[in-house]
Amino acid sequence: MSQDDLEIDLDAIQRRMDGAMTALKVEFASLRTGRASAQMLDNIQVDAYGQMTPINQMGTVNVPEPRMVVINVWDKGMISKVEKAIRESGLGINPVTDGPLIRLPIPELNEQRRKELTKVAAQYAESAKVAIRNVRRDGMDQIKKAKTAGLGEDDQKMYADEVQELTDKAIAAVDKQLEQKQAEIMQV
Length: 188
Description:
6 strands
């Protein structure tokens, strides 16, 4: 039995919980809120040169005004493929081609669509909470293993309390992010 068996890596647990938060932020950025954002195109892939490529690697993505995204496609032969990928992405945006530029006018969201998006945001948040709880469970399993390896009762309680505190903070952060995203979506 080594001293390493008795150490619980709280930093690793924190990093994994932070990773769940980062993934949630990426998912939230991809939700269309009626406001233009370059991140809303992050999940769209274009079939370019025989492989799937993200749009931001096909051209320059700019947001010149609050309700417009402009893509300056570098390879002119790819313009129609980028356009097709956007149309088929499910974003509900109709691209307008103007030479090498593809303009994406962002339409207003109606009330029903806003409510649907808040539900999607809630699903993303719930997935992040599940990921955080899984990290917590792994941390508690590490503590149990350390107990069988000879970790003292007081240390065991201290580690369990710290893992729970990290979990509570992460869940509260997810709830706060969700609240902000839902407010942003419902904002007219």
